[in-house]
Amino acid sequence: MARFDDLGGMARMHSNVRHLVREPLPVAGADPGRLAHMIETQIIPRLMLLHGEPDRCDPYVPIAQAEVTHFAGLVLTRDTALGAAYLASLRARGASLEAIFLSLFAPTARLLGDLWREDVYSFAEVTIGLSRLQQLLRGLSAPFEELDGTPPDGRLALLAATPGEQHSFGLSLVETFLRRAGWEVEVAWGADERRLKALVRSESFDLVGFSLSCDVLLEQLSSTIHAVKQASRNRGLKVIVGGRYFTAHPEMVARVGADAGAVDARDATAQADRLVIAPAASVPR
């Protein structure tokens, strides 16, 4: 996310987002559950494919900070279809799904977190916005994973937020990229240390990935990594960490007991592939 040189710049950005939310376009009389399912399974994929295959687009089409701010405003409205239509406009401009995931979705999630921390939006409002962002991601994940994707090769990853973390949208991006690279992935949403230990005892995971946004839970993460490695059924278990905190403090990766750190979902996949080499042929577990 772009830095701002003064508080006035941040205030103007927040004002722009709030302005968008004041003029929502609800769908009158629609059942929310049915509408959400339709958007996720029909509208989003069709809008994305309308302008060509995702891997035929330019992965380097720039997505500016102003576009991130605008999109954040859209996911904070009542109509997810607005966000889908905006994504379609980016696709028409030539942006690949990878660029949308890394240069739009990821910074939008960070921006929503900032808006909550600075008390511009409530926790509930931001949670709803993130759920809409999650819905848009789900609608795009299947075509992204299928195009030029690798068939499952037997490697198994477990992803989790550091116990106590409030938001973990980045894990969904990592999950999507890992699946495209041939990994089988389980995401332990909201799992505490006890649950994570039980999971690695019951299944021979090759890799565990953790996210962390700030230093408040640094000791908790270090303790959890140690406990998971001790409990793991696979004695050669590898651990990677990511999130805003490790992007700013890469020197802390080794200090918490991780084998590698990642700056985004693409880098996490590259690190995972480096730590755990895919077998020549899939072996049933």
Automatic annotation (TrEMBL):
Superkingdom, according to UniProt? Answer: Bacteria
Renumbered to this chain, the signal peptide range is none
Where do the B12-binding domain residues begin and end?
Answer: 154-285
Q: Which GO terms describe its molecular function?
A: cobalamin binding; metal ion binding
> What is the name of the protein in this document?
Cobalamin B12-binding domain-containing protein
UniProt xrefs under InterPro entries: Cobalamin-bd, Cobalamin-bd_sf
User: Which species is the source of this protein?
Assistant: Salinarimonas soli
